[in-house]
Write a structure and sequence with these properties.
Elements (H helix, E strand, L loop, with lengths): L1 H22 E5 L6 H6 L6 E5 L1 E2 L3 E3 L5 E4 L4 E2 L9 E4 L4 E4 L2 E3 L5 E4 L3 E5 L2 E3 L6 E4 L3 E10 L6 E4 L3 E11 L4 E5 L4 E12 L3 E5 L4 E4 L5 E4 L7 E4 L3 E5 L2 E3 L8 E4 L3 E5 L3 E5 L6 E3 L4 E6 L1 H4 L5 E6 L6 E3 L4 E6 L1 E6 L4 E6 L3 E5 L2 E3 L3 E6 L3 E5 L2 E2 L2 E3 L4 E4 L9
Parallel strand pairs: 1-2, 2-5, 3-6, 4-7, 5-8, 6-9, 7-10, 8-11, 9-12, 10-13, 11-14, 12-14, 13-15, 14-16, 15-17, 16-18, 17-19, 18-20, 18-21, 19-22, 20-23, 21-24, 22-25, 23-26, 24-27, 25-28, 26-29, 27-30, 28-31, 29-32, 30-33, 31-34, 32-35, 33-36, 34-37, 35-38, 36-39, 37-40, 38-41
């Protein structure tokens, strides 16, 4: 009886071990084992762990699959005319702990795919490092893209990105991040850094970017042209986070073509030492600063600091608007041009702000309007076509 019991226990253990092995495959690409073959034969819920460098293109069409690298695990296909890793129509796919190199796209999710990236590095792709498109989604933490031939990360055609932890996109030939065609990105307690790209971040074509909490930081600095561009009906909301756009080759932050940027809940934005403007608005675009703690639940003052820029601190042109409400302030100092320039039918509402020590501080021209309350302004000038009101003690035109 005892022997029979031990045999039952042995075979039960062996059966369970085989089940576990069936759910968790280990691939050693250094021994010419194929990661892509293991993925094609995998079932939902399985985990495939791999080591070494896999010189193959990988395609994932199975949902609820995990692919995890160990140590210096790398996917580096010899065929650079195809995606290094393609996730097609599969949901709940997790990729973690490895590097992707040398594909047409590094990681390409499409066809309503859903992927989670954790601890993934994507570099030296011929096109974009990460492309999420076709109603697909990606949840990304502690990852990076660099040195890609087009964009570091790109979301297109009603797709979404959600970032937590740290993400860095650097040295890409065009955009660090591009959001297009009604796509979105959300930062949840995330630090997102775009540096050394031709243009840091572009939000375009009715897309959106959302900083969801005070734990968020978006750093778009040291890019060759503009740090952050919002264009073509796109919109960005910062709910208490920090934005830094410094030392860029053109503007720190640009808004074009009916786009908008809302700064709420004691957000802190700095745009300094850019070659041209700190914040530049054109073509019916809007910059709103506000904070009402009774509604936001966040005490404090929403703050925009524009200083030391090569041209203007803020430039609003072509019927654009800069508006401030409740607990807000703008500091504009030591810019080589105007602290704030308002031109061609644009409007400015300026509250409790300090604009001084610029080449010229506040200037309104060609049908622009300004409303001023409780500010410290070094010089204020406007032409005969502009209108101002408030506590400046001046009327247009001014010298």
């Amino acid at each position: 009886m005892k022997t029979r019991t031990l045999l039952c226990a042995f075979f039960t253990s062996l059966f369970c071990s085989r089940l576990l092995l069936a759910d968790h495959h280990v691939i050693d690409c250094g021994k010419n084992q194929s990661l892509n073959t293991a993925i094609q034969f995998a079932s939902p819920g399985e985990t495939i762990t791999f080591t070494g460098t896999c010189h193959e293109n990988v395609t994932i069409t199975t949902s609820a699959l995990t692919v995890a690298g160990v140590g210096s695990a790398t996917i580096s296909p010899s065929k650079s005319s195809a995606d290094a890793v393609a996730v097609i129509g599969a949901q709940r796919v997790t990729l973690s702990g490895f590097t992707v190199q040398n594909g047409l796209y590094g990681i390409h999710a499409k066809g309503n795919a859903g992927v989670t990236l954790n601890g993934v590095t994507v570099e030296e792709s011929a096109q974009s490092g990460i492309l999420i498109e076709g109603d697909s989604s990606a949840y990304i933490s502690n990852s990076s893209t660099s040195g890609n031939g087009f964009n570091g990360i790109d979301a297109e055609n009603s797709s979404s990105l959600t970032f937590t932890g740290a993400f860095t996109t650097s040295g890409n030939a065009v955009f660090g991040m591009d959001l297009g065609n009604s796509s979105s990105a959300t930062l949840n307690s995330a630090t997102f850094t775009a540096t050394g790209n031709t243009l840091g971040i572009q939000v375009s074509l009715s897309s959106s970017l959302f900083l969801a909490d005070p734990g968020c930081t978006l750093n778009a600095s040291n890019n060759f042209t503009t740090g952050l561009t919002i264009v073509s009906g796109a919109h960005m909301v910062d709910f208490g986070g920090t934005i830094v756009a410094n030392n860029n080759g053109i503007n720190g932050i640009s808004l074009f073509s009916r786009s908008g940027l809302d700064l709420d809940a004691a957000s802190l934005v700095t745009s300094a030492s850019n070659l041209q403007d700190g914040v530049h608005l054109e073509e019916l675009s809007t910059l709103n600063l506000f904070n009402t703690p009774a509604f936001s639940g966040v005490p404090g003052v929403t703050t925009l600091d524009v200083h030391g820029n090569g041209q203007n601190g803020i430039s609003a042109q072509l019927n654009s608007q800069v508006h401030m409400f409740n607990q807000t302030t703008i500091t504009g100092q030591n810019n080589s041009g105007f602290g704030i320039q308002v031109d061609n039918g644009s409007s400015l509402t300026l509250l409790t702000s300090t604009i001084q020590s610029n080449h010229s501080d506040v200037n309104l021209t060609f049908g622009s309007r300004g409303e001023f309350t409780g500010n410290t302004i070094g010089t204020l000038s406007c032409d005969k076509t502009s209108l101002i009101r408030g506590d400046t003690g001046k009327s247009c035109p001014t010298p």
